[in-house]
Amino acid sequence: MFEQPYDGIVEGLFDGEHQEEEIASALAPDVRSLLTPEFYERLGHPDGDTDVPITDSLSCAGRFAAHGVRVPLVDQGAVDHFGALRRSGPQIARLFDEVAHDGHRPGEARYPVAVPPAGRDNHLVEETRTPPAPVVLGVDDLRPLPGATRIARTSREGVRLLEEHRDSHVDELWLDHDLGGDDTVMPVVTLLEEAAFNGRPFRIGTVFVHSANPIGAETVVRSLTRWGYRVRRATA
């Protein structure tokens, strides 16, 4: 990676004891002179994260392995460093939620009528005004979901449906975990997580999780509750 003589001094310079001025004065005046031609070329054509080399992640995984813990590396795609952070942040939070989960289950509910979004008052409106019809979206491969204004039958359709309502209020969102075959609702959950992580959560009154898969349903409930969404379990 480093050209001579820098290959023999770089590690020692970054030992936490050297000041910035000492490090800068000991290294090459520019990046091209510091690195081998092969590695410099790789920096110009990176795979995945375009800012931080994959060797950083490999080194971390190797240290875990040295202590008997196998840690998978997750490719976040061809994004820059902060793009990788935005994608991985919700995934990391979900992992910690699963590890820390204490088995608590929120109270269950059956299919309710539309629930007003948090913060909206319930005072009577003027008789001359007609209240807008509630927006109730569902992602479920089989159930009819009475009262739903639109239903997506696959995770891909679910993502597209939510994206269509990105800038509007959704009164209720009904989610089933298993969507047939290998398909699950998790791509939809990830979309909701990433939006909240980026500071622009979807405006949803209540998310109802109504899956016959208790483990999958609990994962959805924990994941979305973690990011501030109002979530309730419902009987499948």
CATH architecture level-2 label of the largest domain: 3-Layer(aba) Sandwich
Number of alpha- plus pi-helical segments: 9
How many structural domains can be distinguished in the coordinates? 2
Globally, the shape reads: elongated
Beta-strand segment tally? 6
Tell me the series of helices and strands, N- to C-terminal: HHHHHHEEEHEHEHE
| Structural class by secondary-structure content | alpha/beta
The name of the CATH superfamily of the largest domain reads: Response regulator
Proportion of beta-strand residues: 5-15%
Name the average pLDDT. 80
Q: List the strand order in the largest sheet.
A: 1-6-5-4-2-3
Quickly name the level 1 CATH class of the largest domain: Alpha Beta
Distance N terminus to C terminus?
57 Å
Q: What is the CATH topology of the largest domain?
A: Rossmann fold
Low-confidence stretches: 103-128
Largest sheet geometry: 6 strands, parallel
Helix fraction? Answer: 25-40%
State Rg: 25 Å
Describe the structure.
The chain has 236 residues and is an alpha/beta fold. It folds into two domains: 95 residues, no CATH class; 101 residues, Response regulator (Rossmann fold, 3-Layer(aba) Sandwich), CATH 3.40.50. The protein is built from nine helices and six strands. The protein has a six-stranded parallel beta sheet, covered by helices on one side. Helix 8 links the parallel strand 4 and strand 5. Helix 6 crosses helix 8.
